[in-house]
Amino acid sequence: MDNSAHIAAIAIGRNEGERLRICLASLGQAARVIYVDSGSTDGSPALARALGAEVVDLDMSQPFTAARARNTGLEALRAAGTRPEFVTFIDGDCELQAEFVPQAIAKMQAEPRAAVVCGRRRERHPQASVYNAQCDREWDTPVGEALACGGDALMRMAALDEVGGYDPSLIAGEEPEMCVRLRACGWSIWRIDAEMTLHDAAMTTFGQFWKRTRRAGHAFAEGAYMHGAAPEHHFVAETKRAAAWGLALPVVSVLLLLAAPALGVLALLLYPVQIARLALRAGGDRAAWQNAALLTVGKLAEGQGVAEFHLRRLLGRRAGLIEYK
After folding, report:
1. CB-side exposure of 157: number of CA atoms within 13 Å?
2. Would residue 202 be called left, alpha or beta, if left means φ above 0 and alpha means ψ between -120 and 50 degrees?
3. What 8-state DSSP symbol labels residue 225?
4. pLDDT by residue (tens digit) across 92-130?
5. How many CA atoms lie within 13 A of 278 on its CB side?
6. What is the distance in angstroms between the CA of the first residue and the CA of the last residue of the chain?
7. All residues at 6 or more sequence positions from 141 whose CB lies less than 8 Å from its CB, including other chains
8. Tell me, what DSSP letter sits at residue 184?
9. What is the dihedral of CA 283, 285, 289, 295, to 10 degrees?
10. Could you read off the pLDDT of 205-222 as tens digits, one per residue?
11. Burial group, residue 191, by CB count within 10 angstroms (0-12, 13-18, 19+)
């Protein structure tokens, strides 16, 4: 059965260069392809038009967020042309795998209340750095009904219409937040056992890793602030772990080092103990130790993100975008 007439694709990006060419070329199964550009200076809009995409230039006089870019793409779909039943969202640094859409459509048809279907996102170059490798592991989530999806997914337009799309104010974590609202309306989220996209993180430095992880901490804190109450407890556990390991323990350790140095050293030793615990639980090979170290050190960056969110909230200031590339 040909479902192409019922599918549109929305890609978002800025200065993705050759990655955007690969991304748009992979969207041939969609009847309409909309590319939302966020102030590129590398000729991305012209490239997208040459590849047959409808290009929308995001109004950069307003604060940029990926959520606002995706909503802008949805508005373009609703404004003209045939209204699709499904829309594929993809970031401009990703390549859609051909087998994903047919399997995702089949899942949508089997589950009439499915709002979102996602698959396995993989890192294109996991061997390039320990940070890319961690991304690849991070995206290997369980198959079946899920709580949330990431930036790449196939979604049902009726469900998006019901909840009003993404929250444009969020600088990160916009997909899980929208999934909270979708599930509250009786929709479901699914991860299927299918290759979905190849992603190019291009993350080769510790500074990039820190920024990306700090952004995650900000998303955890904001998500918990918005939907942390029962029954969701959205991102509450993640925020508590970030606050404990990334804020409370460093402060306590410094105070103890000043007042009782021996106790301060013991407190700091909790970090290598945690690394060992995580590594041994994951098998104890080299990759397990690398991942455990990044997860533990990353709690410091997450803690910074949590603190930044609440400080800005108390001061009434809007958060700026946290970009790692």
Report:
1. 17
2. left
3. H
4. 999 999 999 999 999 999 999 999 999 999 999 999 999
5. 18
6. 40
7. 191
8. H
9. -50
10. 999 999 999 999 999 999
11. buried
